[in-house]
Model the fold of this input.
Amino acid sequence: MLPFVIRRFLLLIPVFIGLSMLVFVIGRLLPGDPVQLAAGPHATREEIAALAAEFGLDQPLPVQYLAYAKGLAIGDWGRSIQSRQPVIDDLKTFMPATLELVIAAMIVAILIGIPTGLLAAVYRDRWPDTLSRAVSLGAISIPRFFLGLLLQLALAMWLGLLPLGGRLPITAEPPPFLTGFLLIDTLVARDFSTFFLALQHMAMPAVALSLSPLATIMRMMRASTLEVLSQDYVLTARALGLSQRLTIFKYVLKNALSASLTVIGLYFGWLLGGTVLVETVFDWPGIGLYATRAITTQDFMPVMGVTLCIGLIFVAVNLLVDLAYGLVNPKVRLS
Amino acid sequence: MALLEIRNLHLYMRSFEGDAHVLNGIDLTLERGRIHGLVGETGCGKSLTGLSISRLVPSPPARYAAGSIRFDGRDLMEASEAEMRALRGRRIGMIFQDPTTNLNPAFRVGEQMIDVALHAGQVDSGILGLGPDASRAERRAAACRLVVEMLGKVGIRDAAARVDDYPHQFSGGMRQRVLIAMALIGRPDLLIADEPTTALDVTVQAQILRLIRDLVDEFQLGVLLITHNLGVVAQVCSQVSVMYAGSTVEDGPTRAVFRAPRHPYTKALLAALPREGLARGELKGLAGSVPSLLTPPRGCRFAPRCVHAIDTCRERRPIAEEIQAGHTVACLRAAEPVA
Done:
């Protein structure tokens, strides 16, 4: 187990290097001059040259990359040429918001997707199955931002049940920074009214974001449950008198989970990179908004920082998924 | 009273091409303490007969058109699902062909067996040796003890430690032993063994058969041994039923049936057995193939392949008749002198 984890962690290094090179090169290949953009329309030639020199952008590309890589090694992720803020500080501010949203969305997707997929398989071709099929088709088909807008219209504008956007009202006092996850930080600070506010703010974007993973998990779970139901050991369990409930919720569920685990891991990564539209609609101060702003101004360092950060989380989540396989399937328990 | 008595069981299976008449009048009587062989080729309905006893054939697509299955006097065709569930694992145990796929790979073998023991204990608290008002923890502990005891009985060494192993940590033969222990944990009266040795190699096969025979003596079990292996039948069964295309064609004491088979199909089966000293290419098969059960022959289902068939055979369905004490044959020409 431990050597496996260590090996997987070591594998992060080449992934990290490859990813950083790729993003670095792609960023520089784009047309346009970020220095010019940052310096503004009235900057003189000297001012532009000075700015380029300050950020090392007058150096040859390999030198720039080496300097960047050296920085990464000591935790310096570069600075934004626009705001001059260190990227690592921005990531610390924005990443938790996105992570919190994605985790909430995945929790919703898993908590609903797994049981409904299981039930759809057990009641195959009867009404629960038909219903789940309709729901999943709808959930997969509707664009996230559009669903977000509809939710805002219905729940915020017409019914006034939920706030329109943001993480907290401007008037609310945010809890002291601990994890950056408002739901956790407020609980730690025992500030339950703010916790409830944060929960309200999170409800709509989390639901909007959860639908497509929910649909996929549901369908995946249905397919794998059907496969497990046709296995010999399910017949044996029935033949020896085990109840339907025990058979399904204990013996079938655990076997059917492993296929869904893969999807859950992959979706987690996709959502991290795909929150832009939902964050835009709900004015969610996360990494998606941050990255879009950086991309439109060709601000390299934040773009690279975001990409690397998402890449790392992606790899880490999939490592966790691989470890979780061992829980579900003792045969792949890693030695 | 016989432990199990199947009379005139007819089963249709719905399929895309129509209704297949897959069980066409099964008759079978099984006594306590006996091993009764049920032989026939693939697809003749042996397994469906076994599953029918436990009422495990999903319906639809299955439809029982006629017949009765009396278990200890009770007609199981009339039993509710709840009654059946109380019988399964407690009074009727089952084991299946492939021990590698019949244990759940994601759970420790002890865990799987404990659940069966708890189920049997719920039906009959005496199984766990506890009163009806024992606590959950007491029942679980008793179930655990019973599991270890049963594993020891079927020849798993160091059973107390092995309950914590997963199925893949056992060999094929050991897994079949585990499955047998699991089927017997509720102290059943009837064990339905569906090809229990087919997936095992010959040495292990012999061990498993010996184990089953010992357990029959110890628990006064009745065993329905479903197999296509006549050698296995000859080795352990005191009674045998021969099936062909959904019907029992011959039934009787193994010795009598094997020494003096009266149905042409039984004769052909026995003649097809390879013998020592048989030269290459001399292996005797049976001409023709199994009839389609969607449109079965009108009369005797074996008539199209039977060398003795006459016109009446193609018209009339033969009824099983007793030609000697306990030896019945379903053949219109069985009473005629042997040709």
